[in-house]
Design a protein that fits this description.
By secondary structure, the protein is α+β, with helices and mostly antiparallel strands. It contains 47 helices and 43 strands. The strands form eight sheets. It has an eleven-stranded mixed sheet. It is elongated. This is Helicase HerA central domain-containing protein.
């Protein structure tokens, strides 16, 4: 093994290795680690060498002065230097020194004390060489003890780290090679140095070197250590017992052992910590193997038997302590009592069911909402501080403030539920809501800040803070987000902590536990150190909350009521402000805190000096085993007849398992007894190592009881296994179908509820509808877009949490029913948008009327928000129809034929059936006839047999038109003063002819592809720099200084609507679309071929993908898929192929044929129209995959020639 130097920062090797520089080491005889070393060496059952190698280090004063300057300039770290390089600090050195951090100030002080002119480079290592026939296992255990002898040495920034060399390799040969290399270094006295934060060498001044090389005197050694070193031993006798009266006052309460007289004889009756003294807390300190765990078992048993109130135990080691306690509990109190009164949280298998972000308890007690929110934010920050450390947590100064601001938005009484996702209440939420709020903040920030996208809040300070952050520059904002998300990640990136913090079911409520006599065991051994710290912080925070609520009820409690909190390995998991508060308020809370650790000074390393001193000042009972005693503890236990040095000697000479106890007086204000020796209580019966372990029958009964304990703990007090936050979101194509722009599925459900209400005729009063009907309608929509619908259980959870939906049970009908909340009605209400294409109020009224008319027929109608894209006014789907309807309300467009045809074009492009909605005109069918005339056929046929194309309002342009760079617009000459300025496009056989209103011909082309800028009469462009219009007329250039001058001589040519060029199906028979007339009596009818029919006939007569394929299969989407099927799909019973593989093959095949592929949902729909297969979900390598059962792909490559 070897001991290494560990620095907080790369250059912290310049810092002190000890914490107290006030006196020279020569005057300090309390902290000689070689005393413990010699004692431990005496126990090792193998030849062992301990070597200290040291050499004078060259003067490094210039390096020290450079470091001091960096510290004063606040550029000590790479991050500091980078920030200084970007944001130049113009302050003087003196000004900077006025604002140094505590860490920088302390580093400067330690640098001044270190004395770089006289330091040493030091190596510490030890080697044990067992004999060939020796059992190495006990030697390993003894070396583990030996490793701890320097644990008490270490400064704030520079400390000792231990390493077992064989432990850092996987292969046995590598372990041996590594150990032998260090053995050779030891034999050769080779001084090894290194670089980085952890190095094999220490840099020590003379005071720091002294503990490693000062040989202890014989009177400081244990008996065995003295014998092995042939030295003389003093102070081996036990301390004198306190006065008889004192001892008699210590006979009732929590038993801690048997007092030992000066002759070494233990008393028959155990000594106890009285109930009145328990609330002053107690500490057990002993090295590994010193008996802390077995003593803790007896503490729990005795506290459970002698006090009224719960016993709460935090076990960080996970070495079987909890189960062995329960064996002892079962033997002492009975297995039935074990089942009824013990809870065992085997984290992570059973997670404690706290609801952390929860104000319900505080609000029910009348606490002001603002105060409750502030306390919850502070608690969350304290928990993160515990695991990160205060300095690191607060380094990003904006993160704590930002976390508090986001928590305020989520608890906002007006906007809280709106800010979250699937929120049940504004009074509580899970951690995922905090992450959701962080995502909202991210989306609102640079490069295009959008304050409207921020979480909303009525808290002025929180709103101002969020606005300021999103209006910073992109780099600063990114840094802020990194700091925020790094802190949230301590919870969100740990699966177990995430489940605990996401839980909102109040399963484990300490307020209820405080009214019981239960034993609650938290077994944290299955967690990482960080996760265990964070969960410990959560447990302490929740317990402190509960203690505050019952503080006023203590007068009604019996005198022996105590809440017992016991924490094993307390230094590593409980160094927090919360623990400080609990220690200080123990008496007012009736709380007893029992801490077990290897040595108290660990608390200073983990939680700072304040916590350590608070520990010693606020703990009434000290139980100290064999440890390396530090000065503070020695002073705390010394008295007029036993000075600190003598006490330290006594502790070092203690046999393993024995304690020196210092107890307060049971009578408040009186001096307590002097310290005395205590032998441990025997291992409790039932424990496997006790003199009376469980019998075979008892063990079987215990295992049954243990199973019951775990089941009860999980079911009644654990995080529910099946109520995690819903993860289902709205698929993109379903969102497009329903006009839903958010991922939140409850919005899609709300739209579906509205549709079902319309279908059932109960929308006007927002009446209840069947949940089953809503779910089935939603699942039909999922199938339409070829997506896997969420499980019914997940839909249930979403409905339960959603602020948009109100669910209850219809007792008479024995079914679940649902309706929209006020927020749900607002969210589900259709909105047509405010862009020009959205139409006016008459247009919107017509949309609502057609929705009302179609819904009772089983249609799901989605009125779409118009945003300027190529959307229809609405979409309508029906479970019996394969193809959806694209609804276009034609209140004004019938007067403009090309607008009607453009709507037809949009519908055909998305493979929908166009449904044109009109009102009555001069006659009932006036506008319907007009629409039908435009559509069938989509050209204008004159009485003289001439066929004309309808024309767009837009001009015919090339390369973007006259105002674009390199673009031109087509024009023709003005033909006399009476020119109508019309563009008349005529179909003459296979040719396209351009005329004016008088029949003058300007262009004749064999097809639209032949109409180019060189074939039109003329073109013009606009020259922006000189503001001139340039006309190009077959070899001539005309220049005009104004638009009016241009238009006086030239007419813009309008673009024709040519069906074969613009429509997927240019034939467009009356069966390929539908027209609905909205009568004035609110009855809607279908119009076709000059007559009207009831609206329900729309389900019978409209073509649904049954058109005869054209000769060229590439011109028809269904024929394209048919061609793909003939080449690539094999119908094969029993076969199965992933849907993604089929679509990927289709995409590659379409690319080969220069065809634009359908979307996955449309491809799947067309595929199912032409061949039979079953859609299934299968597991491939543990992952759920959507598959087509009954078909397979042909055994060929898409790169083959077709």
């Amino acid at each position: 093994m070897r001991w290494q130097a560990s620095s907080m920062r790369k250059d912290d090797w310049m810092m002190l290795l000890t914490r107290n520089e006030t006196e020279p080491f020569a005057d300090e005889t309390l902290s000689l680690p070689l005393v413990s070393l010699v004692d431990e060496l005496a126990d090792v059952e193998a030849p062992t060498i301990f070597q200290v190698l040291f050499q004078r280090k060259p003067d490094w004063s210039p390096t020290a002065e450079s470091r001091k300057l960096d510290l004063r300039n606040q550029t000590d770290t790479l991050m500091d230097k980078a920030v200084d390089a970007v944001f130049k600090d113009t302050r003087t050195l003196a000004e900077k020194e006025q604002h140094l951090s505590d860490g920088a100030t302390q580093r400067l002080e330690e640098l001044s004390t270190k004395n770089p002119r006289r330091t040493f480079t030091v190596n510490l290592r030890a080697v044990a060489v067992p004999t060939i026939d020796a059992d190495e296992q006990p030697v390993d255990a003894q070396l583990d003890d030996l490793m701890t002898v320097f644990d008490s040495i270490g400064g704030e920034f520079y400390e000792v780290e231990r390493e077992r060399l064989r432990a850092n390799r996987h292969r046995e040969s590598s372990k041996r090679k590594h150990a032998l290399a260090v053995f050779d270094q030891l034999l050769d006295r080779e001084l090894v140095t290194g670089r980085g934060r952890t190095t094999p060498d220490f840099v020590c001044n003379s005071r720091e070197l002294a503990p490693f090389i000062t040989i202890p005197s014989g009177n400081t050694l244990s008996v065995e250590g003295s014998r092995r070193t042939r030295s003389e031993q003093e102070s081996r006798s036990s301390l004198p017992l306190p006065h008889h009266d004192h001892m008699e006052s210590l006979r009732e309460g929590m038993a801690i052992g048997h007092a030992v007289d000066e002759n070494g004889t233990p008393e028959d009756d155990p000594v106890c910590i009285p109930t009145s003294s328990l609330v002053t807390h107690y500490l057990r300190a002993a090295t590994t193997g010193g008996g802390k765990s077995k003593a803790l078992l007896n503490d729990i048993l005795s506290a459970s038997a002698t006090t009224d109130g719960p016993v709460i135990v935090l076990d960080h080691k996970g070495d079987g302590l909890a189960e062995n306690y329960m064996r002892a509990h079962g033997r002492r109190f009975g297995m039935d009592d074990l089942e009824e009164n013990v809870l065992h949280f085997t984290v992570p298998d059973i997670l404690p069911g706290f609801s952390f972000f929860d104000l319900r308890a505080d609000l029910s007690r009348g606490v002001r909402r603002t105060d409750a929110v502030k306390r919850k934010a502070d608690q969350y920050k304290q928990i993160l501080e515990l695991v990160m450390g205060k300095d690191l947590f607060r380094r990003a100064a904006t993160s704590p403030i930002l976390i508090e601001s986001l928590i305020k938005t989520l608890f906002d009484e007006e906007y809280g539920r709106e800010n979250g996702s699937y929120r049940e209440s504004e009074d509580y939420f899970g951690h995922e809501q905090l992450e959701h709020a962080s995502d909202q903040l991210t989306a609102a920030g640079p490069p295009e800040p959008n304050e409207e996208a921020l979480p909303k809040t009525t808290d002025v300070a929180a709103r101002r803070e969020l606005r300021r952050k999103v209006n910073t520059d992109a780099k600063t904002f990114s840094t802020i987000l990194t700091g925020l998300n790094n802190r949230l990640a301590y919870v969100s990136q740990d699966a177990n902590l995430r489940r605990i913090f996401n839980n909102t079911a109040q399963q484990l409520d300490f307020r209820e536990i405080l009214d019981s006599n239960q034993v609650i065991l938290f077994d944290l051994g299955g967690l990482s150190d960080e996760a265990a710290k964070l969960l410990t912080g959560l447990i302490l925070a929740m317990l402190e909350d509960a203690l505050r609520t019952h503080e006023g009820d203590l007068t009604q409690r019996p005198d022996d009521y105590v809440v017992n909190l016991m924490i094993d390995e307390a230094a590593s998991v409980a160094a927090s402000d919360v623990l400080n508060n609990m220690l200080e308020k123990g008496r007012s809370f009736r709380l007893s805190v029992g801490l077990a650790m290897q040595f108290p000074e660990q608390m200073q390393a983990e939680g700072g000096r304040r916590l350590y001193l608070n520990l010693l000042n606020n703990i009434g009972t000290l139980l100290v085993g064999k440890i390396n005693v530090d000065r503070e503890l020695a002073n705390a236990m010394a008295h007029e007849e036993l000075d600190p040095e003598a006490f330290a000697n006594r502790i070092r000479s203690l046999p393993r398992g024995e304690w020196i106890a210092q107890l307060p007086s049971p009578t408040f204000g009186e001096t307590g007894p002097y310290p005395f020796n205590v032998k441990p209580l025997p291992i409790p019966e039932g424990h496997p190592e006790s003199e009376s372990p469980l019998t075979g029958v008892e063990e079987q009964r215990f295992q049954d009881a243990l199973k019951h304990v775990h089941e009860r703990t999980q079911q009644e007090f654990g995080v529910p296994r099946d109520t995690s936050q819903p993860t289902a979101t709205t698929p993109d194509e379903l969102g497009e179908l329903l006009d839903v722009t958010t991922d939140d599925l409850d919005v899609a459900i709300a739209k579906t509820v509205r549709s079902v209400q319309l279908r059932k005729g109960v929308r006007e009063d927002n009446e209840w509808v069947s949940v089953e009907t809503v779910d089935e309608t939603l699942r039909e929509l999922y199938e339409r877009v070829d997506e896997e619908p969420p499980a019914y259980e997940e839909l249930t959870e979403i409905r339960k949490r959603s602020r948009l939906l109100d669910t209850t049970v219809d007792i008479d009908a024995d079914e679940l029913i649902v309706k929209l909340t006020e927020a749900g009605e607002t969210e589900a209400k259709p909105g047509t948008g405010d862009v020009r294409s959205a139409g006016g109020s008459d247009h919107d009224d017509a949309l609502l009327e057609i929705e009302q008319a179609l819904s009772p027929l089983g249609f799901t109608v989605s009125i779409l928000t118009q945003d300027g894209s190529e959307k229809p006014d609405a979409r309508a789907t029906h479970p019996d129809l394969e193809t959806p309807f694209a609804i276009e309300v034609e209140t004004t467009t019938p007067e403009y034929p090309t607008k009607v045809l453009t709507n037809l074009k949009k519908a055909q492009a998305e493979s929908a059936v166009p449904l044109f909605v009109v009102r009555t005109g001069e006659t009932e069918a006036y506008w319907a006839e007009r629409i039908e005339t435009i559509l069938s056929p989509p050209v204008r046929e004159l009485a003289n047999g001439e066929t004309r194309f309808y024309t767009h309002d837009s001009p015919l342009t090339f390369n973007g038109g006259a105002t674009e760079h390199g673009g031109v617009t087509a024009i023709r000459p003005v033909n006399g003063s009476d020119d109508s300025k019309r563009s008349v496009w005529v179909k003459d056989g296979d040719e396209i002819v351009l005329q004016n209103g008088d029949g003058t011909e300007y262009l004749r082309a064999s097809g639209w592809g032949s109409v180019t800028k060189d074939r039109v009469p003329a073109t013009y462009s606009y020259d922006h720099p000189v503001e001139e219009y340039l006309v190009y007329e077959r070899g001539e250039l005309h220049v005009y200084e104004s638009k009016a001058a241009l238009e006086a001589e030239w007419v813009t040519i309008k673009q024709p609507f040519i069906p074969t060029e613009e429509l997927v199906d240019p034939t467009n028979s009356t069966d390929s679309y539908a027209i609905v007339i909205l009568r004035e009596d609110n009855e809607a009818v279908v119009y076709r071929d000059g007559s009207t029919k009831p609206l329900e006939t729309i389900l019978e007569n409209t073509e649904q993908s049954e058109e005869t394929p054209p000769q060229n299969w590439k011109d028809d989407s269904d024929a394209i898929v048919g061609q793909f099927i003939s080449e690539w799909i094999v119908e094969e019973k029993g076969s199965s192929v992933p849907a993604a593989d089929v679509y990927s093959t289709y995409e590659s095949w379409a690319k080969q044929h220069e065809i634009t592929p359908d979307s996955p949902s449309w491809f799947s729909r067309r595929l199912s129209n032409q061949i039979e297969f079953e859609r299934t979900t299968e597991r491939h390598d543990g992952e759920a995959i959507r598959c087509y059962k009954g078909i397979s792909l042909a055994n060929r490559s898409v790169d083959d020639e077709f």
